[in-house]
Amino acid sequence: MAKFKIATPIGPNLSVPGNYDYEMEDLTGLDAEIVEGPADEDGFIAFAQDADVVYAKGMRFTKKVVDSLPATCRAIVLGSVGVDSVDVVAATARGMPVTNCPDTFIEEVADHAMMLLLASHRRTLEQDRMVREGRWREGRPALLTIPRLMGQTLGLIAFGHVARAVAKRAKPFGLRVVAYDPFIEELVMVEHGVLPSTLEEVLSQSDFVSMHAPATPEAEGMLMEKHFRLMKKTAVFINTGRGPTVQESALIKALSEGWIAHAGLDVLEIEPPGNNNPILGMPNVTLSAHTASASARFDPARKRHVSRELALVLNGKWPMSCVNPAVLMKSDLRRWQPISMERGPNS
Fold it and tell me: What's domain 106-287's architecture?
């Protein structure tokens, strides 16, 4: 038996189930082992009673699970940007660090957001269907009512790493960029050539509204009917963040009743969606299957990040990407590098 037990629920690891070669890279010489246990609450609680670290995946780590982890557990380590699968409040109350991968997939998600913006604006799916269905001559007339992209306004809701990367991509297309984020200094936006705005200004002025708010309890259901009613009838709504930040019933109503023109969605409120979800039958929606972060480097990059965090924690050091850094000063882990004040979920 290894000295250190890294407890993780059994199940898919987004690539090869049970294969932890990348996660083990930085653990050489530490006498540590990643051990799979049950993926249900009670089963995992019993299994993790001797865990030194938890590698969180494959299930929700509720308050019940977090509160039941042993005092010897040094941290909860995630291999994702989002931390909505872990009750961070409960972990913070226990003084337990929670880590994520805040900067691993920024470029991919920003690319995907721009892809959805361009595909929605130029009605790519509609144009594709016309060609395949022998309606070649209908393609040009369908676009003659669409304004040129240059000079239009892109509004960003939240201004973390992905939103900043989207702003960088939007500028060469001639888009004016505005953003709303009450947790970011306005000077940060200005440095990126983005105009700080209120939420109402972003919604009412933008031709494209791109949602980047993290799935925190405060942001859940953030966009409601009243917000979609503020948007232009010609506006395109894009979401590559988290589905639960939007009240999907309000978005469906906005799309079906013409409050907005189109939506480009990589995320939905419930994933995968049921066959009764009206969004699946809407011609004015462009969809992808929560794939914005996917690329050839996805698995190696995030798993190696997990490996570094596991190694740091088991070596008694602060992790690099702690989403609740206030717990670190009171923990038994020792500080080894400065910690940025910007660190946090999706920062």
Answer: 3-Layer(aba) Sandwich (3.40)
